[in-house]
Amino acid sequence: MNKKLLSCMGAWALTTTVFAGTPQRFVVKGQLANIGDTLIVLRSAQPKLLRDTILVKKGKFEYTANIDKPKSVYFFTPATMRHQDHKRFTIVAVPGEEAQLKGDINMRYDITGSKFYQQYHQADLMMEAGQQKINALEKACDDRLSKGESRDAVAKDYDAQMPALEKEYHETVLNYIKAHPSEEASAAIIPELEDLDLMKAGVAALDSSVRDGRMKCYYQRFLDQAQKEKEEEVRAEKIQASGVEAKDFTLKDIDGKPFTLSSLRGKYVVIDFWGSWCYWCIKGMPEMRKYYAKYKDKLEIVGVDCQDTPEKWRAAVKKNGMTWKQVYCDKDSHLLEDYAISGFPTKILVDPQGKIVKTVVGEDPAFYELLDKTLE
């Protein structure tokens, strides 16, 4: 089973203008080793998110629902819901169809069943084979990290190799769709193409009966989301571009006092959008401490905590020794929208005149190279 479908969780919130049909029965029958004794099922039924619980006996389970259009249905063990495990899978649920799963949740499993899932099984095998090089690179990088190799060195190799492997994978998926234009499973794997233009090419390759059939409401959600993300990227490029004046803001600091960004004019400033829940944000704090100590006579850092409770924010600041200026971005603030923040951490270097020097998204060694280049 292609595990990459798990990245499609964001589809819950997507909407579509395609009309739904009459509800029909959808069934999943499974025989999965190491799955435990309970599964939590989540599926959208706009405007609500429905949650069901099903029992598993010796790896066997069955789930039935009446659905009016194809949609993603997500299965989790309770431990996975508590972030204590990683046992989960996703099914493209299609009205009137029956899916059958068999295998080991810890290793691999196959999906077959009625006509749609027989087609999907073949597409899934293609995607599984296509991801072998990607999986091998990820495993090699994990192994290097576990042996104590520098994260920066591993990340550099990963970034150098992954784009070509992803391009090869996307070409494999697109070629499969072109070779199977009359199969509904080809429409179901459109999201695997990820890039908006590639997804449009995949849709164009479908026979009209499939392109305009019942799977349209499924793939269209992902196209709409990709279009929205592309528009947001264009907006972010403009707002975060070098030379643009950093939008001023006032937020309360960790002592509850108002802090205004423009009060730091005359010094270089790093605006660091982070959260205690963000693994890479916390992972990068030792390097942030190092560079703050190195350049604190020339540089100020303003940590903008996002999507935390005040209690978790304060605890994380203390635990991670973040001695620079800290402010809290509450849910009523428009700051994330004003700066077009879409990923964490996002670090924005601002010059003494209040103009953006550069924006770096993610915990990237390039940010610290930028500081050295600018401040040494």
| Helical content (DSSP H or I, runs of 4+) | 25-40%
Mean pLDDT across every amino acid position: 92
As residue ranges, the low-confidence spans are 2-19
Structural class: alpha+beta
Please tally the β strands and state the result: 15
What is the beta-strand fraction?
A: 25-35%
How is the main sheet built?
A: 5 strands, mixed
Element-by-element helix/strand order? EEEEEHEEEHHHHHHHEEEHHEHEHEEH
Q: Helical stretch count?
A: 13
As a whole number of angstroms, the C-alpha radius of gyration is 24 Å
Shape: elongated
End-to-end gap: 51 Å
Widest sheet, order of strands? 13-12-11-14-15
Fold blueprint:
Layout: E1 24-33, E2 38-45, E3 48-55, E4 60-67, E5 71-76, H1 78-81, E6 88-93, E7 98-104, E8 109-113, H2 115-130, H3 132-146, H4 151-179, H5 184-188, H6 196-205, H7 208-211, H8 216-239, E9 250-252, E10 258-260, E11 268-274, H9 279-283, H10 285-295, E12 299-306, H11 310-319, E13 325-329, H12 335-338, E14 346-350, E15 356-361, H13 365-375
Helix pairs in contact: 2-4, 3-4, 4-6, 6-8
